[in-house]
Amino acid sequence: MKLKIAVLPGDGIGPEVTEQAIKALNAIALEFDHTFTYKHAPVGAIAIDETGSPLPEKTLDVCEATDAILFGAIGDPKYDNNPDAKVRPEQGLLRLRKSLGLYANIRPVKAYETLLDKSPLKKHIIEGTDISIYRELTGGIYFGEKYLSEDGNTASDLCLYTKPEIERIAHLAFKAATSRNNKVTLVDKANVLESSRLWRKVVAEVAKDYPEVALDFLFVDNAAMQMILNPKQFDVILTENMFGDIISDEASVIGGSIGLLASASVGDKFAMFEPIHGSYPQAKGKGIANPIASILSAAMLLDHFELFEEADLIRKAVEKALILNITTPDLNADHNVSTSKVGDFIADYISNPNDSNLNFTNIHLGQSTII
Questions:
Q1: Is 245 a catalytic residue?
Q2: Which residue in 249, 284, 286, 316 is the catalytic one?
Q3: Distance CA 254, CA 271 (A)
Q4: Residue 151 is a catalytic residue
Q5: pTM score
Q6: Residues 49, 209, 221, 355: which is the catalytic one?
Q7: Which residue ranges in the chain fall short of pLDDT 70?
Q8: pLDDT reported for residue 359
């Protein structure tokens, strides 16, 4: 298969972790005789510095001309700490999602057996957790009309949803559930919000098309609590934009590090793959950023094109790295394996799955044969 991939590394640790994902994809290409070509483009704070825009038109053009997008991370403290900034890195990501129609964000959450002791939650609570979160991505309060009074003392953000917006992501969530454990949980705030009541009505209608799938409902505050008390009860979680943003980040504590969580943002025509973590500027250039989420995002990219054997090999390589404790300091405080060396090991495993235990010493010495 030939794929053209837009690479938007972004800010902070974005370029470092994205580089490791590309290593894994290149190893897959060699192993399975695929051709992956890459076109880099700026987004976020670095794009503002270069062009004045967080999403330059040339970057959007690159994305529209490729088969998929590999995204890093965006954000910079000089914008985070300035509430009066009119142009922000995050605006580039929001516009990208809207422009490409990336209405569904899919975030797998898994408790790895070898990392159960890394989570702040007790082992018996998280063991066996395997959740897929479907978050609506182009509607709701993030995109609704915004108002600030002239005196700066009153502000509002409109949470707006339409029936078609809810229907399209609901169908994706129910279809996903049919290949998992046949359960969808809608997370909302229908006791207070009219938009949530519309979600309940529409999702209940969509559920009739999937009689084999059980549907239940949770208010978002209860869902946040249940995510900590009993995450194993969830299979597919379906929710709106802001609630999904919060719930999926909360779920990152299950695995022990936000550096493990990948995501896919898909629409009818385009698809983008990215780690859910931020730009972590304090770690930039130090080699301590966990690249696994970005690498697993590359696996989701392969899934999207039905390259399931290839995606599975990446996941096996990741699990092998975790088993051998070839991880960055967020998961391995005793042995500092650098961002780049984690990427080297995973790429090495893809090419030599039977020999990577032997190559581990070479990787520590900086002598990996992967180029």
A1: yes
A2: 249
A3: 26
A4: no
A5: 0.88
A6: 221
A7: 356-371
A8: 55
